Amino acid sequence: GKDLLVSEDFQKAVQEKFINAQNGDVIELHEGKFQLSKTLFLEGLNDVTIKGQGKDKTFLSFKDQEEGSEGLYVSNVKNFTISDFTIEDAKGDNIKIKGAEGVVIKNINSRWTDGAKETNGAYAIYPVSCKDVLIEDSEASYASDAGIYVGQSTNVVVRRCYAHHNVAGIEIENCINSDVYENKSINNTGGILVFDLPNLPQANGRNARIFKNEIRDNN
To answer: What is the DSSP letter of 53?
Structure first.
């Protein structure tokens, strides 16, 4: 098929795009399946977009990961968008975004491909300590903890997503102002969890609105 396993060339090219990224860059990922052995990092940038050709066309696989635990790790960015690719099999979290403002995650599939295992990474999609977060039209599956996990963030929307075969399907922790709607959370341990934990930098999570979701066959 279209498994463009030009792994080394592509990996170098992609790593270089991330290493050399500047404010305002659009990092476009080609069609095909790419084997990446190191975490992709982005830090301290504004107005960066990472865009594939579609979640059924662009695949980033971390099955043979040698360095780092996350697949994609982004910190301290403003106005950051990722869309239109599948990311799979990181040792730790597939996508972790920390301390960002203005985050859009759309048309992403984040998964582990060998089924449910304790050794799978904890979180498929994980924004933490962020402000103004939108996660939409995305799928998260087979995480050993939560599929879509938003922690200690403010102004959060999770909509039209599909979480399945995780421990927690969608988890909202210590967030202020979250709207979670028109999602499907099916075949997880728990469907949608909302809670407030003590001893975290952002406490007193509040104003969570959970509506128009299909939550079923969680066990």
So the answer is: S
The kind and range of the H/E element at 161 are none
Q: Are 177 and 155 in contact (CB under 8 A)?
A: yes
**How buried is 78 (Cβ within 10 angstroms: 0-12 exposed, 13-18 middle, 19+ buried)?**
middle
Residue 59, number of CB atoms within 10 A of its CB: 22
Helix (H, G, I), strand (E, B) or coil at 31: coil
What pTM, to 2 d.p., does this model score? 0.95
Residue of 197, 191, 181 whose CA lies nearest to 140:
191
Per-residue pLDDT of the chain (219 residues; tens, 9 = 90+): 344 555 577 778 888 899 999 999 999 998 989 889 999 999 999 999 999 999 999 999 999 999 999 999 999 999 999 999 999 999 999 999 999 999 999 999 999 999 999 999 999 999 999 999 999 999 999 999 999 999 999 999 999 999 999 999 999 999 999 999 999 999 999 999 999 999 888 889 999 999 999 999 999
**CB atoms near residue 207 (< 10 Å):** 12
CA distances from residue 61 to 111, 128, 167 in whole angstroms, order as listed: 10, 23, 22
